[in-house]
Specification:
By secondary structure, the chain is mostly helical. Helices cover 74% and strands 0% of the residues. Helix 1 crosses helix 4 and helix 4 runs antiparallel to helix 5.
């Protein structure tokens, strides 16, 4: 049976996002991807290798989203606010961020997860730094804060929001939190 690897990785990513790594069986992965278990192992070698592919795909998707968002014209503040909300999952679902979830579940024991997460977080922080610098140059944000430190704080806020969302905190509180992050800039 032929299948498209990219679509299969997307399906696996969604399942891992919903159930976590430990909570997802190879049979569930094969079923979600519409393939047999043999095809899963022939193509991806192991559940862990598929998980790494899913995390890399998640990273690509998030960075593509941010690139598109911040290459568009217009004020930076609303776009940064949207980026924070989307990355944390505000209003979309209660799954949090797949990368934050992966680090929380496996980070203490899995250097591969930590490496992929660290790379993504570093790239997101760089995007935030550039956006904050643009906002400072345009007068949207104050110039009294160092863009590097502010970008790190925004990233930490996104990660924290993601955890709160995953924990099931009432969603009506998140809009005010995101507004506060932007207002602090």
């Amino acid at each position: 049976m032929q299948f498209e690897t990219g679509a299969a990785v997307e399906q696996a990513m969604d399942l891992f996002w919903r159930q976590g790594y430990a909570g997802t069986t190879p049979q569930e992965l094969a079923s979600a991807m519409g393939i047999g278990k043999g095809s899963l192992y022939n193509t991806f070698v192991s559940k862990h290798a598929l998980f790494m592919s899913a995390l890399r795909r998640y990273s690509e998707r998030r960075l593509e989203y941010l690139t598109d968002l911040f290459s568009a014209p217009g004020p930076i503040g609303p776009r940064l606010k949207r980026a924070i909300a989307v990355l944390a999952g505000v209003g979309e679902h209660q799954r949090g961020c797949v990368m934050v979830n992966a680090v929380a579940e496996l980070g203490a024991a899995d250097d591969d997860v930590n490496r992929i997460a660290s790379e993504l977080f570093t790239q997101i922080e760089a995007v935030f730094r550039q956006a904050i610098t643009q906002g400072q140059e345009s007068g949207e944000f104050g110039v009294d804060r160092v863009a590097d430190a502010a970008a790190g704080q925004v990233l930490a806020s996104v990660i924290g929001l993601s955890v709160l969302i995953k924990a099931g905190r009432p969603s009506e509180t998140f809009g005010a939190i995101v507004d506060g992050i932007i207002d602090a800039l």
